[in-house]
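Appendix B. One record, verbatim.
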Amino acid sequence: MWGLVVVLTLSVLTAMARVSHSVVLVVLHDMLPVNLVVAWAILVVGLVTREWVLAVTAALLVGYHVGLLATRHRVDDAPAWAASAPRLRVTVANVYIGNATPEAAVKSLLETGAEVLVVTERNPAFMNAGAAAGARDTYRFIVDQPSDRPDYEIAIASRVELGPSSSVVEQGPLRIVHAQIPCGTRDLAVIGVHLTALVESGGYRAWRREISALREYLGGLDEPFVVLGDFNSTAFRPALTGPMRAAGAHDGHRAAGKGLTRSLKFAAAGLLARLPAMARVDHVFVSRDVYVVDIENLPTSGSDHHPFVATLAVRADE
C-alpha cells in the first residue's frame, strides 16, 4: 500500500515542481488524473484500518486530485473584447495513416464547415479521397509539403486566401506548417505540429528537442497565434505546458472547460476501438489575443484519434 502512496506522491511532487527528465515520470504525469483514483481507495483503507498517517497522506493526494479535476472543468471568463471579435472555426484531425475508410474521414471533416482544416498524419489515401469529394473546391488554399516521415506529415487547408508568410518551416528538428489566415482586421498565425511519440526509438529525447524548437519558434511570432495538432502528450505533462506557457500560449481545452475530454483511442479498428478514448494528445494552444469560445469532439471515422472543432475569437485591432 505504501508503495503506491510513494509512487503517487512522487508523481504529484514532480508535476508540481515541473520535473520531467525521464520517460517514467512523463508517463506518470500523463496518467496523473487516472492514477490518482487509487488515492481514494487508499484513503478508505487507511480510515477503516485506522492507519492515520496513511489516511492523512491519501487525503492530501485526494485533495490534489479534486483540485486537478476542478480546474479542467472551469470555463475561463470571456474577455470584454470577445463578444464583438471576429471568429474562426478550425477543425483539427489526426486522420491516421492506416485509415481504412478515408472517404468517411473526409466527409466528417467537410461537414464541420470550418474555415480551416489542420490535418496530421496526412497521407495519399486521405488526400485522394479529399480530391474525389471535391474538397479542393471548398478549401482552395493549402500548405502541404510531403516529407520522409509519413507518420508525421501535416497539411493545413483554408477556405480563405492565405497570407504570404504561409509555408512549411523546418525549425531545427521540428517540421512546422504555418498558415497566415486573415481574421477581421488582423492576420492569425495558425501553426500545425505533430510531435514525436514516446513509443518511437529515442522518442522522448526527440520530443524534448521538438518542444524546445516550438517554443523558440513561437517566441519569434507576433500575436495573435494558435498552435494545433498532435502533441503526443497530455496537458498534465509539465514538459509540455511549461514551454508553451513560456512562449505565451495557454491550453485552449482547459480554458474552454474541456480539459478532461480525450482524443487518443486504444486502436482505430477492432474490439479495442470500441473502448472510450484514454487521453487527450491533440490540443489547441492560443496566445493572449485569442479566446476559445467552444471546442467539440468529433467521431473518429476510421482513425485512432478523435478530431475536434475549435471556435476562436480573435481580438480586433484597437
